[in-house]
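ARCHIVE RECORD
Type: protein–small molecule complex
Small molecule: thymidine-5'-diphosphate
Source of inputs: curated submission
Record status: active
Notes field left blank by submitter.
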Amino acid sequence: MAKRKTIFVCQSCGANSNQWAGRCEKCGQWNTIVEELSNSGVGAGPKSATASGRAAPLSSLSGKAQDAARSTCNIAELDRVTGGGFVKGSAMLVGGDPGIGKSTLLLQAAASMANKGHNVIYISGEEAIAQVQLRAQRLGLANAPVKLASETNVETILATLENENAPDLVIIDSIQTLWTDRVDSSPGTVTQVRTSAQALTRFAKKSGAAVVLVGHVTKDGQIAGPRVVEHMVDAVMYFEGDSSHRFRILRGVKNRYGATDEIGVFEMSQMGLKEVANPSALFLDQRDEGSAGSAVFAGIEGTRPVLVEIQALVSPSPLGTPRRAVVGWDNSRLSMILAVLETRCGVKIGANDIYLNVAGGLKISEPAADLAVAAALISSATNSALPSKAVFFGEISLSGGIRPVAHAPLRLKEASKLGFDSAFTGRIGSSEKTSEIKLTEFSDLSTLVSEIAADIQQ
Ligand code: TYD
Ligand code: MG
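STRUCTURE (tokenized, with ligand):
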């Protein structure tokens, strides 16, 4: 019998090492290294595997291309993120903080699919059957023909699924609770999560069912799993949002069958998650019109324009190193904008504490938000409100120039639809202009600054 050797695996990033350490060298996390047996897990393969292989048939690229077979679940915001419905024979990971609403969303999706006549199986490893039933009753979904089980052993789950007549959709909630007899590590470790996810992904490919794996990720990435599962599955989406906000955003980060930059917006209510078809109206709902430090950014999320309020607060700092706090945007991008404002436009605000917040819990990654951030900062620093019916978009370059950004017409159309009457932006082509909205174009940031902040010019 082969000698059993132990290895030490980081539960955060999956890195292996030969000895235990308090801190993982790869990802820098503390106390994440756990001892596991090396002849178990993925590298070792299933115990039943034999050494002799069988030649696989090879084919060419020019085969008959077929569109992936999909089934929509009638929850439009979810269908948008999956790229038009669950794909048969694919595995999908839905990650997110505990309590954000993953189980709720997937139960709603399961019920909707089952009501359409699909064979749907929901396996809960976290909750007892009675708990899931209670939730279904609260959501008014108790009559949907979803088949329910509460199980955590992968072999039992696979046997249950094989026993079922061709399931269309299988939901596993959650991947962290699963364990398989094939590996010796304790449940919840990276090896267990990885091996279980692999077995279920294989089941998806073999049976043609769409398998959805739920995974918890904490903010500091302490819980093992989902990150190492990401590369195994066909699609990864993250359910984001602040539990103190009503909004939840489902964001596609990987999708082998569709675009990845789409978001789905939901609102958590008494009756579960409600779709938000017009997110801009929701994000601007409680805007303080006419207050200093607030600018509306006309952004694009995937194929959809989204207007969102950017709030800035510039306040004198008692500290030697002023504080910078950013919620919903990139910290280093803020430093860049501040540097450009100081160096190119003579706006001296760097010695102040600066707080920046994207209202509604949305996270923005578009560089087009630069101009709205700069406008909000200048507005707060001068304590004068920006025009309340104006939107801002444009990318700021290090030279202080404002670069045009893509999809200007879509942004302008959305702004005009929501009652905005002017837009501040970089130069845009004449073919992209719309007559509904007054455009003020700038080629450099200092012109914008001198328009709205004459009194802090040095
Ligand atoms: P849940 O789906 O259990 O989260 P996850 O599976 O991601 O851990 O959602 C739990 C939260 O959602 C909980 O705090 C209560 C809230 N909730 C509602 O506000 N309304 C509802 O109808 C339901 C079912 C849950
Ligand atoms: Mg849950």
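CURATOR ANNOTATION: Residues 70-277 form a domain with the Rossmann fold fold (CATH 3.40.50.300).
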